[in-house]
Amino acid sequence: MYEPWIYQMYNILFTSLPIMWYALFDFEHAKQIFLENPQLYTQGIENKLFGLQVFWSWIAYAFW
């Protein structure tokens, strides 16, 4: 009853595009704030938010 391309358009429009839209346009701060405050990058450089302990806790949680 439906053409196969209709199913593909559904998959593209309702599953991938919202994720890409969110990834491209979701900002915690404006770009100018990052340029004016380079100390905002220290969390990533010093691995404060992600490290081996966090990684293995996520793996354990996934298996649980």
Structure commentary:
This protein has one domain (4-63). With 64 residues, it is mainly α. The model has no long low-confidence stretch (mean pLDDT 87). It is built from four helices and no strands.
Number of domains: 1
Secondary-structure-based class equals mainly alpha
Oligomer status: single chain
**Secondary structure: number of strands:** 0
What pattern of helices and strands is seen along the backbone? HHHH
Give the fraction of residues assigned to helices. 55-70%
Tally the helices. Answer: 4
Quick synopsis:
With 64 residues, the protein is mainly alpha-helical. It has helices at residues 4-25, 31-36, 42-45, 52-63.
Labels describing this entry:
single chain; 64 residues; 4 helices; mainly alpha
Task: Map the helices and strands.
Blueprint: H1 4-25, H2 31-36, H3 42-45, H4 52-63
